[in-house]
Amino acid sequence: MKTSLLLLVLVCGSTTLSAQGELRTLVELSTANYPELRAKGFELEAARRQVQYERSALMPTLDGSYQLIYSTNNNITGMFLPNLVLPISGPPVLENSFDMVFGSAASLLMNWTPFTFGKRSSRIQSARPQPRARAAGASADAFRAPGAVYRSLPKLLGGGS
After folding, report:
1. pTM surpassing 0.85?
2. Angle at 12 between CA 11 and CA 18, to 5 degrees
3. Which of 41, 46, 89, 111 is 20 to 30 A removed from 153 (C-alpha atoms)?
4. Tens of each residue's pLDDT in the chain, 161 residues
5. Sign of the C-alpha dihedral, residues 30, 31, 37, 38?
6. Taking the C-alpha atoms of 27, 33, 35 and 41 in order, what is their torsion angle to the nearest 10 degrees?
C-alpha cells in the first residue's frame, strides 16, 4: 500500500521542491554518517601516519623500565621483564625459604640503528603510495554512497526488496 502510494505520488509529478530538498538532506546526512566512509577516513589517516612512522625509524629511542617484586627469597633470582631488564642472577638458594622480601630492578636501553642496508628506505618507499591509494578508495566510496542510500529508500519506506 505504501509503495503504491509512493509510486502514485512520483508518477503524478506532485513532488515538491521541499520534498526534494528533504531527500537531498537525507542523502547528505546519511553520507556524512556512513560507517564505511568514516572507516576509510581513518584508514587514510593511518596510512599517512605510517609514512611518518617509517621516517622516524632513523631517530634513536630510549626505553625505560622499572620493576618491583615481593615474593619469597626463592623467586628473587628469576625476576625479569623480557627485552628491557636483564634477569637477576645469583647463586642458587640451597634451602627453601618462605621469608618474604622485596626485589627491584631498573633499566634504560638506548637503541639506534644508523645502518639498515636499505631496509629503512625500502619501507619508506613502500609506505609512500599508500595514502594516495587509500584516498582514491575513499573518494570512490564517497561517490558510491549516495547511490546506496537511494537504493535503500524503498526498503526504508516499507516496500520493495
Report:
1. no
2. 95
3. 41
4. 344 333 434 444 444 445 566 777 877 887 778 888 888 889 999 999 999 998 888 899 888 878 787 877 765 554 555 565 555 566 667 788 788 878 777 778 888 888 889 888 899 898 999 999 989 888 888 888 788 777 877 777 776 55
5. negative
6. 110
